[in-house]
Amino acid sequence: MIDATTPLMQRIRHFWPVVNLCIGLLVITAIVVALDDRILARTLTEGLIRVVIVVALYMFIGNSGIMSFGHIGFMMIGAYATGWQTCCPYTREMFMPGLPGYLLDNSHHFVLAIFLAGLLSAFVALIAGIALMRLSGIAASIGTFAFLMIIYSVYLRWSTWTSGASSVIGLPQTTTPWVAYCYAVVTIFAAFFYSRSKFGLALRASRDDEVAAKAAGVNVIGQRLLAFVISAFFCGMAGGLFGHFLGMLTVDTFFLNLTLITLAMLVIGGMQSLSGAVVGVVVLTVVIDLLKNLESGMFGKDGFVLPTSSTWVVVGVVMMLIIIFRRSGITRNAELYWPFKSDITAEGALRRQS
Amino acid sequence: MEVVVQVIISSLSLGSFYALGALGIGLLFGVLRLINFAHGDFITVGGFSLIVPATAVVAVPLILDFHPVALIICVVGVVVVWALASYFLLFRHIQTAPPAVLMIASVALSFSIQNLIIMIYSGRPKAVGLWPELTGVIPLSDKVQVPILQLVIVAVTWILLILLTIFLRRTPIGVEMRAAAEDFRMARMLGVNATRVIALAFVISGALAGIMALMYHTQTGILSFRGGVFLMLYAFIATVIGGMGSLIGAVVGGYVVGIFSTVLIAILPEGMRGFRDAFVFGLVVVILLARPQGLVPTRAFKERV
Amino acid sequence: MLLSVEDIYVHYGRVPAVRGVSIGVSEGEIVCVVGPNGAGKSTTLLTISGVLRPSQGTINFDGQSIVGLTPEAVARHGISQVPEGRHVFTTLSVEENLRLGTRMRRDRAEIEADFKRVLELFPVLAERRRGAAGKLSGGEQQMLVIGRALLTNPRIMTIDEPSLGLAPNLVDRVYEVLLELRESRGLTLLIVEQSSERAIKAADRIYVLRSGEIQLEGDAADLQDGEKVRQAYFGFTEGVEHAGEATF
């Protein structure tokens, strides 16, 4: 273990968790791309998109302590918003006849489209958050859940813009592993700088003791709102990425199942650390992929085959076991400083206790 | 006029249904601060217990062929066992955790149960003919017909409400449960056995879910692994609207949601009807903001949330 | 000693609230723990009753260790708690509240007699027997909580700030009742109180708790003039000379 003694070393150590995460993901991505296996590459891309989602979830949930069930709603908003800008120029009017003239006639580059989609999500988060962030604790969680339900039922019925219960097909599949990797890195950096900023600190103070934080002059509602908006921005972009990964959009993609899977990743990794968010995605993606392969009979027809859906039963059960036995997740809510000495700050020590 | 009568009867029957669900959720919130997302899946489990576990498309009756009394007892029994197991295997180990943790654990449980059902019975919906004689209608006049099942639902709900009220008011353990719902710590300081009270709350909640399973599946005639989910969501809304942890509130909330959603369908213009759910969930946010203690406030909510 | 708390430490997270507190209560005694807000008085009581766990130290009741027991198990040992803030069950009737106190007992005949005695002791409760407890006034609620605790037939009753939020004449009445109970049935009492004067008047022995530590312990009779208690309570002595000294 390296002991960071000089100021320079301490500075490096400060940023080291991000370096670890980005290099780790880089290695995984490089290996998988080198293997040139189409199916494995898809798993990888999906995993990297989930890194974006779960890290965005961490920004809000980890720092505010409020469990949000609504963020997949922001993904939906982002996904459809990119669809409006990039999908199927020739059939767009058929799928989404209600779009305004400009959107019907023009397409944006998908990077721009994803960025604008993120902005739209952030804007919706701002409006919704002004109401929802006033709530605390369990009421706030219920509120975010109601938000998801509202977005879901609106998008399901708003068929002139979303094609409703049927799918929108023909988004260009531009989300390659490397594209997804870039977005994951950007999100990780954003989450890191946000949570180490004075805003992140103030929000965590309110998480640990709301009354004391208020007494110390923290505008709790404002800080929550900021985190909500930022994380919604990244969730919106993740939605765009996901649409350009699947090549199609359905409303049901962005509902309870994805909500649960992403929350499971966060809970299993460790809700209150950035490393936890990433580790949770990596671990659960590997587990899910392995089990899925077993379900589809990876050892040939006569080999061992798991029944359909058992993957998800396992995911649910693992999540419950983590909640019972190790509530701070695999990482125990600590960041990955290796090869530096681990977190010895008071905050780190406190975290490991809780 | 005919429309009004129909709307009244269907909103009463729908409201009764939500009231029962809300009671099942509210009871557990009262003693454990748990918002049990798996409540709907208990209802689903009750439905699937009627048939032989198999992935075949055609359902083979199991409990379904029993004598009605045995059928009711078995279905309710199965659901109660699930509810109790979920307490002793899961929630008992995290009962001091913050409510958000309990909530997410119940979401995980709900997800697991749904996928377990797909695993055992496959994800395809299955037809099940439970008590087809209840699906008829009683003609009140030339134009007004009342479905028998809606009347049964209202009647059963009120019988259960009365029984539950008697239990909570007249029996010592019922009084303990009310005390525990209001101030669990004080109740324990008086020697109230926490495990027993919570376990009993799970039993009652499970029994209510079992009876709902019977009525719900008689009405739909279809078993689906997501069958209970939306039922639970609406019941959950009812608990929030009525006031978390208040049992009277749960019933009031159930009827408010039932009436609100039926009336919305009746008065909304054609193109807007699809957005009913959005309106109902919007109502939840409004209530949370304007009246976080719900329509019928309880001390439990104020202290615990 | 009926109840002996020895050298307990209690933490909220990493913050110590109680550090090395020892308290002993003998049968038939009235012991008062006084101290300012945040001194750790309530924490100590909650630890005795099993709501909080000490990180260190022992608590023995009648020779048996009660550390680590659940609140209901502690209650079953005969330790009755009247926590801070009068925890009546507002939605239950007065009678239901009282009856909850008897749920641990199996001696049916005795229960009825005790029940009558409590209603005689607090006639106002008899009048409002069927009414919701939430409708009672603050003083009446305090009587209800004490009556309910009595009905558990406790060997020791611990009371957290019985005077909190009550008018002075009602506080007098509460203490009158408590002293009466000690006379009539030899009730052992452990009372937590903010007002040191009140404590000196009522108690046999006094502990002064400040910043989580015992500052002073002694017989109430020896502490009658109150100066020592005040000093321990505030952590400094009032007076011009001392203020002057401090500047050197």
Describe this entry's structure for a reader.
Chain A is mostly helical and 354 residues long. Chain A has helices spanning 7-35, 38-64, 71-86, 92-95, 101-105, 110-132, 137-157, 159-162, 177-196, 198-208, 210-215, 220-246, 256-269, 274-295, 310-325, 346-353, and strands at residues 168-169, 248-249. Chain A has a domain at 16-255. The longest helix of chain A is centred in the N-terminal third of the chain and has 29 residues, at 7-35. Chain A is globular and about 60 Å long. By secondary structure, chain B is mostly helical. Chain B is built from 12 helices and 4 strands. Chain B has helices at residues 2-32, 39-48, 68-89, 99-121, 148-170, 172-182, 184-189, 194-220, 227-242, 247-267, 276-290, 299-304, and strands at residues 126-127, 137-139, 145-147, 222-223. In chain B, the strands form 2 sheets. Chain B has a two-stranded antiparallel sheet with strand order 1-4. Chain B has a two-stranded antiparallel sheet with strand order 2-3. In chain B, a hairpin with a 5-residue loop joins β2 and β3 (145-147). The longest helix of chain B is centred in the first third of the chain and has 31 residues, at 2-32. Chain B is globular and about 60 Å long. The N and C termini of chain B lie far apart (44 Å). The model of chain B is unreliable at 300-305 (pLDDT under 50). With 248 residues, chain C is an alpha/beta fold. Chain C has a single domain (3-240), classed as Rossmann fold, CATH 3.40.50. Helix content of chain C is 38%, strand content 25%. In chain C, a hairpin with a 2-residue loop joins β9 (205-210) and β10. The interface between A and B is large, with 45 and 43 residues.
